[in-house]
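Subgroup meeting minutes
Present: P.N., E.W., G.H.
Scribe: E.W.

1. P.N. recapped why we're keeping a running log of single-chain structure predictions: easier to compare across weeks, and new members can see raw inputs and outputs side by side.
2. G.H. added today's entry (241 aa).
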Amino acid sequence: SEILDLIYNNGDVEKCKQDTICKRVPFMEMIIPGVQNGVEDLKKMQSPRLVKTHLPVQLLPSSFWKNNCKMIYMARNAKDVAVSYYYFYQMAKMHPEPGTWEEFLDKFMTGKVAFGSWYDHVKGWWEKRNDYRIYYLFYEDMKEDPKHEIQKLLKFLDKDLPEETVDKILYHSSFDVMKQNPYTNYTTFLKARMDLSISPFMRKGILGDWKNHFTVAQYERFEKDYEKKMKGSTLSFRSEI
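Output recorded in log:
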């Protein structure tokens, strides 16, 4: 979200500090009565609008397809997602308590988490990528070579920015800089909604943190289940670089 907002503001960092990232890029389906309404926020915005959604492909409003919107889908390997989600569940108070890591991992594997099965989600968007203007972006590629990925995004968006602007976007969208930025790190959220003392919104931003959480038995069970659920798909992830 921050990278795209920086791109559409031509790298103007001050413009991107006019409000928090969730106001600049509304989370469409986030509706908390009297507090936040993503749909209403989007209605107030001028085109071109940046929209954030976590919806599985089959639940996306049909207007997105009819209007031939450009969509960027960010996917990350399942094991790191499970770990990240576990910490997010603990601090984001709109979610039920996750239980132990073992219990949460089981919920993740069976799709009993917000937005459903990770496996169905990533495969669903992957299968649509050639039919519509969908750019399928891998978190692991972004970590490995962020500049190259930003340049590919610019091409997809038909944007042409000078190299010094790209370097500026690269710097200001880096994990360490965003972690310190109150407009991106969610520290402005009320503790009743997100308790950052439990876990920061921007926690580690690394690849392979799953190795610090999975036991050997959990890993083996997960891999066996993963193989079964991803069978037949051409989609493949890297869980380390």
